[in-house]
Amino acid sequence: MSYVFIDGVLQGTVKDAEKFVKNTIKERRAGKFSKNLNILYNEEEDIIKIQLDKNRLRRPLIIVQEGKSLLTSKHLEELNAGKMSWTELIENGIVEEIDALEEESALVAMNEKDLTKKHTHLEIDPIVIFGMNTSMIPFANFNPSTRLLRGQKNQQQGTSLYALNYLNRLDTNVNVLHYTQKPLVKSFTQDMYGEHITGGQNLVIAILNYEGYNMSDGVVVNRASIDRGLSRVSHYRPYAAERRRYPGGQIDDIKVPDKDVQGYSTEAHYKNLDTDGLVSPETHVRGGEVLVGKTSPPRFLSRLETFSTAANIRKDTSVKVKFGENGTVSKVLLTESKDGNPLVNIEVRDTRPIGVGDKVSSRHGQKGVIGHIANPEDMPFSSSGTVPDILFNPFGMRRMTVSHLIESLGAKVGALSGRYVDGTPFSGEPSEDLRKELEELGFRENGTETLYDGRTGRAYEAKIFVGNIYYLRLKHQVADKVQSRARGRVALLTRQPTAGKAMEGGLRFGDMEKDTLIAHGSSLLLKERFSSDKDIVNIGDRSGDIAEYDSFTDRFTSVVDPKETVSKVEMAYGFKLLIEQLKAMGIRPQLKLKDKFKQKRSKQ
């Protein structure tokens, strides 16, 4: 007896489980049961699972019986002529949708020529195994799965014309590519999803080392290409200021703040504001400068503070340009928030040419950063005078992205013959045909050419692979990530530098970074590196406890023994804080002091 579970609930038992499952599937295909029903017999547990619930991912497959597909050429003709619809294919039991549960008992063939009597289903097209982004990778069937996963992620990160109405929108942290291009080699799904979602440009690529600047995943870019607008983007960042209302009838004021408000910055920061407290469109602004002048009322007033003059001073809560950024005010919008309060939306744009440290990628997961921007006269060139836009490292091919090379070859054919090349996975143009066509166009069939060193004029001994490839500029830009500081703000509790770029923070120099300095033999630098919160603390010589300041005698005395001597010890304020927090927990740490000068004399 096999138990039957419907949507996870036990409903009964059956004697012959396999016969029951076969009959259920037969009745479903005949239209007697719901087409949403999926069934599986688990032999190990001897249970039958039936799923009828909503929101399950199900995919269509052609039904196979006795090793033959039920979808015939006659059906295809009727579909092309419009005499038959997709719904009719499902209703007539030619195509069915199965979920992950029923898929366990199915044997699916990729192509019709692979069918055997064991197969239960046939894929409509092998490309169905890929998702939306992966299906747009040309010749994806020649790539390892790990590269395809990275490739489709990189396509999501590529800067592009993400929406045609981008000028009317206020999206966070947006990059719009100036000169978007259609890929020369593309899958048919690219046309289905729309040309506007493409986010890259067709570049000339040479697979070649260049003085180690493109080692590992780095790439070398031609400066002339950047000057002509290669991968140039406009970066848009929105800012918002709301004029809020508070209990007691108090409200925020949007105006140029008076100098007596709490938190007033320097006058230079307010120079861009008009009399209404707002910045004008097309004003150039820098990091820290005010876009919207705003003052807020004093909040959290206690009974005593209401009568004090200090408590009634308004606070400056102006909206400023993010630290480290600059740009031009693109638009200023006056509207209302969902609470009905006046709302100011400001958008700042910044044109960003591609530079060293910016991230680029092909559609095959071959991502890297720009390691060097070479002058055009120093770049290698071919006999026809073609100078590559990008120099890609040959060692990058160790990742076995064969489709990277096939796309380069195909795009080279497309550029020379003036056509788009079909790179649909499993059904695109065969690479053999592309190689023959390239040979007919007067090039070597393997895509290699003789290149000349731009610095010496000599020909490289090896033949260099040169082709065209669709490259993406990714949203990860060095301008958003670069961070440095000298002296600056510190945290109130630990007296250590604040963390994070937005907080004008420092970069943590941790234990592993400390080890690198020691390994370089420059351990004396550690004294400078680890003194960001240096503090001089008075410690009792015998008790090892922190001495307290006695204002009556104007000196530090030990709490344990007022007569004992006290020494000044240099330590991190974070360590002193730890000692005091341990004391608060009832633990009394003791610092054992040694005379530094005595130790030196004993060593001598």
Structural features, described:
The protein is α+β, with helices and mostly antiparallel strands. The chain has 4 domains: 2-129, no CATH class; 140-163 and 176-231 and 356-473, Beta Barrel (Dna-directed Rna Polymerase Ii 140kd Polypeptide, Chain: B, Domain 6); 234-352, RNA polymerase II, Rpb2 subunit, wall domain (OB fold (Dihydrolipoamide Acetyltransferase, E2P)), CATH 2.40.50.150; 533-603, RNA polymerase alpha subunit dimerisation domain (DCoH-like), CATH 3.90.1800. The strands form 11 sheets. It has a 6-stranded mixed β-barrel with strand order 12-28-13-26-25-32. Strands 5, 6, 7, 8 and 9 form a 5-stranded mixed beta sheet that branches. A 5-stranded antiparallel beta sheet has the order 10-14-24-23-18, with no helix packed on it. A hairpin with a 4-residue loop joins strand 34 (548-550) and strand 35 (555-557). It is extended.
